[in-house]
Amino acid sequence: MTRTPPTTVTRVRLWRWRRNPLRRHSDVVEAWIVLTTWVFAVLGGVLAGLAAAQSADAAFSARRAQVHAVAAVVTDDAARTQATGTGYDDGRVWVTVRWTDADGSVHTDRAKVPPGEPTGSRVTVWANRADRVVSAPVTGSAASLQSALTGVLVAPSAGAAVWCVGWMVRGRLIRRRLAEWDAEWRQIGPRWGNFSGGRG
To answer: In 153-180, which positions are buried (b, 16+ CB within 10 angstroms) versus exposed (e)?
Structure first.
C-alpha cells in the first residue's frame, strides 16, 4: 500500500502585496487598512500621549500661578488635636492659622499641620487669590512625573481606540468579501458537476 506523503503548507508572507491570480481588489484594500490602522494607532497614541502630558503640565502651571505661599502663625495648640487615623489621613491635624498680607490685612483660616505644633509656631501654608487656605500645588519633579504618567496612560488608550476603529472597518470588508464569495458560489456551484462530467 502506497503511503501518501504529507502535504506541506508554506505560509507566504505579505501575499496581499504581491501580484498573483488569486488576489482580489478587496485583499489589497484590506492590506492598506491593516497598514494604515497600525500607523495611525502608533502615531495617534504617541501624539495623544504628548498632548495629554503637555495639558497636565499646563494645568499644574496654571494652578501654581493661582496660589501663593504665606507664613502663618498657629493659633490653636496642635498638640491637643488628635489625628483621625483613617486610611486617607496623612497624619496631620487641622488647626486655625493666621497670617498678614503685605498690605497689612489679616486673614484667618483652617490648615493642616504636623501634630505637636504649639500655639504661636510659624508654618507655611498656601492661599489662593481669595485668601483661603488650599492644598499645596504640585511642583518640580512631582509635576513632571505626574505629567509623564498622564501621557503614558493616555497613549495606549488612544492607540487602542484607533486600532478598534480600523479593525471594525476590516471586519466589514471581510463580511462583504464573504458575501461576494457566497454569491459567486451560488452561480458556479450548480455548474461544478457539469465541469467534472465534461472531463470524463
So the answer is: ebbeebbeebbeebeeeeeeeeeebeee
Which string of DSSP letters, residue by residue, matches 21-60?
TT--HHHHHHHHHHHHHHHHHHHHHHHHHHHHHHHHHHHH
Give the residues across from 73 on adjacent strands.
98, 122
Per-residue pLDDT tens for 73-86? 998 766 655 555 44
70, 105 contact by CB (below 8 A): no
Domain of 83 in residue numbering reads as 66-136
Report yes or no on 7 lying in a domain: no
Over 70: is that where the pLDDT of 133 sits?
A: yes
Q: Do 119 and 96 belong to one domain?
A: yes
Query: Residue 199 phi/psi, 5° resolution?
Result: -70, -25
Question: 184 vs 6, which has greater pLDDT?
Answer: 184
Q: Is residue 46 located within the same domain as residue 100?
A: no
